[in-house]
Design goal:
Protein name: 3-dehydroquinate dehydratase
Largest sheet: 5 strands, parallel
Pfam family, one: DHquinase_II
Family: Belongs to the type-II 3-dehydroquinase family.
Distance between the termini: 17 Å
Pathway: Metabolic intermediate biosynthesis; chorismate biosynthesis; chorismate from D-erythrose 4-phosphate and phosphoenolpyruvate: step 3/7
Oligomer: single chain
Structural class: alpha/beta
Number of strands: 5
EC number: 4.2.1.10
Low-confidence stretches: none
């Protein structure tokens, strides 16, 4: 039976591909999800890909993952910089956690240079656009394979 990975996306991620500034690339959120599903399948992972604009929903999903997922990939988006509740929920998760961001946070506004999510994450992937999502899944597969 394959490992289940929850891939959680925060506020406004559903708008990827619609951003006129190009910060997040031109690929739509639906296309990114489809690419992740294909990549996860190739890695032998079952992927549960979700997006919410609401902090409490993300917290509920992280708590749900404690019983249903072997690993988490999370792009908390704007909540990355402000959500102690998301951090607390992540700290209660026992499996690998990969934080991922489409853009390179350290090339952006200074308030984006601090991540609450990073305090719980096993590792961070940022700045590779949609490729970063697939890199995060590859990292999770490797972490799960090498887990005692």
């Amino acid at each position: 039976m394959p490992h289940t990975v929850f891939f959680l996306n925060g506020p406004n991620a559903n708008l990827y591909g619609l951003d006129k500034s190009g910060t997040y690339g031109s690929e739509s959120f639906a296309s990114i999800e489809q690419g992740c599903q294909c990549h996860a399948h190739g890695l032998g992972l079952a992927l549960d890909f979700r997006q919410s604009n609401h902090e409490g929903v993300l917290v509920d999903w992280i708590q749900e993952a404690r019983q249903q997922a072997s690993a988490l990939v999370i792009n908390a988006a704007g909540l990355t910089y402000s959500s102690v509740p998301i951090l607390d929920a992540l700290l209660a998760f026992d499996g690998p956690i990969v934080e991922v961001h489409m853009s390179n946070l350290w090339k952006r506004e200074s308030f984006r240079h601090h991540s609450y999510v990073s305090k719980a994450a096993t590792g961070v992937i940022a700045g590779f656009g949609a490729l970063g999502y697939r890199l995060a899944l590859s990292a999770v597969a490797e972490l799960l394979e090498n887990r005692p």
